[in-house]
């Protein structure tokens, strides 16, 4: 692949470090805002249904716009898309901070803000992942993905407690201003950075309109994923699992308020434990690199995640340490799963197709979450959020067993039939 050319000299390290730093700043600000807004909704409404609506507002753009965003990322300038996404999110944050300062903010306005942020994130995420695959040599992708998962965990460790402490000193508007500053810092780094672009069939693109080109690109992406049988099986498992997992995680504030002492500091501590787990799992993958056949790394992670979530659902009432320990294990396994899966895609998918494959993967996994959230809100208000953690654990364990016995999943990385790139399918 083209990004292997710099592996001998290590010339990829400096630009990747700058790129990674810019994204770390952007993501840190986003984590602060997410915590502050979710806690504000939980504190002012004490409603699981309201948190479910907030989660839907943050998810629907990814599900609806994912395939289109992937096609645009594959055709467009990824550096420019990252700059526009960060700048647009910062502008929306400024508007919401004004509403908070004026004292006229309502939950529906927060929902709308989360929706707009998710639209920007729908372009930001695939642009970041696909750019990484072009900067980093293929043989280092699993380790770099481990580093990225460690970054995500580190942000969970730092952002949640920091946001909880800052909320005791500053109003929510102050947290929003921090996000604006980190976004501007990220844009400043990107303006001075060159990000490689994949080769494209420019003649074909010039002969069609933008809408027609996008339509064709989306169809090519769908066919590409459909022909990759092993990936389709994993995506089907992810759809079932995510319908239970994401609502469970979104209901953590309600779990803290009802089963623990109900403070933002407790919620921050539990989320920090989850983040420590992600850092540990990311560091493990970064050092180890996973099994030679990365799909077995994914399966192992699924089994460990299922056991952790089941244990969390069966927690002793009022025992915050138990919940924190379970989420630590779950975070570690999620880092292993995501890092190994993204490395498989980055290693086996042609660079000019990665945006579409990434966004189609995320859209497919996220499509069942709205159904899960629509059920989780009302039922958690009646039965408690614990039932969702236990159910997610059971489903995850079942999916790990099914994947281990599926020939298509076990051959996920084998040429020539299960890998569309190895089979000669070329997108443009």
Descriptors:
428 residues; mainly alpha; Growth Hormone, Chain: A; 0% strand; disordered C terminus
The rounded distance between the terminal residues' Cα atoms is: 16 Å
**CATH fold group:** Growth Hormone, Chain: A
The CATH architecture can be named as Up-down Bundle
Give the helix tally.
17
Regions with pLDDT < 50 over 5+ consecutive residues? 1-9, 420-428
Number of strands: 0
Radius of gyration: 21 Å
Strand content: under 5%
Order of helices and strands: HHHHHHHHHHHHHHHHH
By CATH, the superfamily comes out as: MFS general substrate transporter like domains
Q: What is the helical fraction, as a range of percent?
A: over 70%
Class inferred from helices and paired strands: mainly alpha
Describe this structure in words.
This protein has 428 residues and is mainly alpha-helical. The protein has a single domain, classed as Growth Hormone, Chain: A. Helix content is 79%, strand content 0%. The protein is built from 17 helices and no strands. The two termini are 16 Å apart.
Short structural summary:
This protein is mainly alpha-helical. The protein has helices at 13-45, 48-75, 78-102, 107-135, 141-167, 172-191, 202-207, 210-226, 229-250, 252-259, 264-288, 294-313, 320-348, 354-366, 369-383, 386-404, 407-410.
Q: Topology, please?
A:
Layout lengths: L12 H33 L2 H28 L2 H25 L4 H29 L5 H27 L4 H20 L10 H6 L2 H17 L2 H22 L1 H8 L4 H25 L5 H20 L6 H29 L5 H13 L2 H15 L2 H19 L2 H4 L18
Helix pairs in contact: 1-2, 1-4, 1-5, 1-6, 2-4, 2-8, 2-14, 2-15, 3-4, 3-6, 4-14, 5-11, 5-13, 8-14, 9-14, 9-15, 9-16, 11-13, 12-13, 12-16
């Amino acid at each position: 692949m083209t990004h292997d050319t710099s592996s001998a000299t290590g010339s990829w390290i400096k630009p990747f470090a700058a790129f990674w730093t810019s994204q770390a700043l952007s993501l840190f600000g986003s984590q602060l805002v997410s915590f502050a807004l979710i806690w504000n909704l939980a504190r002012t409404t004490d409603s699981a249904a309201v948190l479910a609506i907030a989660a839907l507002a943050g998810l629907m753009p990814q599900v609806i716009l994912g395939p289109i965003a992937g096609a645009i990322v594959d055709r467009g300038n990824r550096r420019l898309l990252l700059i526009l996404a960060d700048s647009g999110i910062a502008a929306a944050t400024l508007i919401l901070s004004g509403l908070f300062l004026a004292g006229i903010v309502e939950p529906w306005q927060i929902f709308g803000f989360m929706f707009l942020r998710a639209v920007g994130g729908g372009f930001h995420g695939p642009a970041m992942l696909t750019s990484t695959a072009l900067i980093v040599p293929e043989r280092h992708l699993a380790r770099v993905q481990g580093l990225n998962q460690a970054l995500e965990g580190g942000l969970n460790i730092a952002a949640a407690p920091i946001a909880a402490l800052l909320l005791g000193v500053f109003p929510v508007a102050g947290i929003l201003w921090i996000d604006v500053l980190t976004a501007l810092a990220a844009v400043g780094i990107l303006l001075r950075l060159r990000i490689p672009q994949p080769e494209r069939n420019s003649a074909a693109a010039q002969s069609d309109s933008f809408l027609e080109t996008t339509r064709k690109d989306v169809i090519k992406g769908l066919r590409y994923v459909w022909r990759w049988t092993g990936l389709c099986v994993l995506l089907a498992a992810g759809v079932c699992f995510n319908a239970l997992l994401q609502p469970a995680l979104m209901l953590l504030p309600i779990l803290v308020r009802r089963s623990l002492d109900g403070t933002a500091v407790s919620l921050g501590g539990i989320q920090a434990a989850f983040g420590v787990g992600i850092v540990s799992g990311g560091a493990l993958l970064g050092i180890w690199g996973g099994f030679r056949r990365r799909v077995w790394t994914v399966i192992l992670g699924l089994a460990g995640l299922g056991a952790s979530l089941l244990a969390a659902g069966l927690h002793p009432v009022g025992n915050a340490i138990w919940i924190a320990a379970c989420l630590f294990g779950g975070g570690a396994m999620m880092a292993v799963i995501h890092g190994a899966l993204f490395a498989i895609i980055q290693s086996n998918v042609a660079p000019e197709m990665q945006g579409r494959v990434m966004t189609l993967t995320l859209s497919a996994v996220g499509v069942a979450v709205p159904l899960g959230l629509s059920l989780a809100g009302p039922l958690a208000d009646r039965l408690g959020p614990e039932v969702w953690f236990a159910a997610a654990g059971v489903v995850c364990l079942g999916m790990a067993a099914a994947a281990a016995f599926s020939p298509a999943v076990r051959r996920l990385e084998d040429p020539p039939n299960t890998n569309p790139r190895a089979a000669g399918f070329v997108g443009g």
